[in-house]
Design a protein that fits this description.
Number of helices: 5
Number of strands: 7
Structural class: alpha+beta
Distance between the termini: 54 Å
Largest sheet: 5 strands, antiparallel
Order of helices and strands: HEEHHHEEEEEH
């Protein structure tokens, strides 16, 4: 194949990549972008294509958020993040609940903008403080069918694990897996 045809192929594949923002280092002190390539996008679309119920869609959203984090970890240091705030020590890619709630909200908005969410809409991050020293943030999904809000919280577990998706009312009471 001629070299100029390869340039055209590369330009077409790059044109289909979406860049998503990401933050880390506790309180979103560091920011980066990562790409969702055409193959990644097709995989996400397949994950969310067969959802016949809101419950099935929430399960697919868990998998999609995990996939988006794995994509981000290919080009950012967030693969070093550990669940909670202290196990990751001084790792460059560490994230607190502020980082997680913002990133997951970004991911959910991306899924919504693609038209892949049929039963849910994305809310704004919320916080809880069941005790004075236990302030915690999460991303939120709103179920349009029954009006229930759901916490989508990836902070509890190490990098690469799917987020917890639980009713927001239960999460606000101090839910921890």
């Amino acid at each position: 194949m001629k070299w100029w045809l390869w340039l055209g192929v590369l330009a077409v594949s790059d044109a289909h990549a979406d860049a998503l923002p990401l933050c880390y280092h506790y309180g979103c002190k560091r920011e980066a972008h990562f790409e969702v390539g055409a193959d990644d996008k097709q995989r996400l679309a397949r994950l969310l294509s067969n959802d016949a119920t809101a419950e099935a869609e929430r399960a697919a959203i868990k998998a999609a958020v995990r996939e988006l984090y794995l994509m981000a970890g290919r080009s950012t240091p967030i693969w070093q993040d550990k669940g909670g705030n202290f196990p990751d020590g001084t790792a460059d890619g560490r994230m607190d609940c502020v980082d997680h709630s913002r990133n997951v909200t970004t991911f959910l908005n991306y899924l919504q903008e693609q038209g892949w969410l049929r039963f849910h809409t994305v809310g704004k991050p919320v916080w809880r403080a069941p005790s004075i020293l236990d302030l915690h943030y999460t991303a939120v999904l709103h179920d349009g069918g029954n009006g229930e809000d759901w916490a989508v919280d990836s902070w509890f577990k190490d990098f690469g694990a799917p987020p917890e998706v639980v009713p927001l009312a239960i999460w606000k009471e101090g839910y921890s897996p």
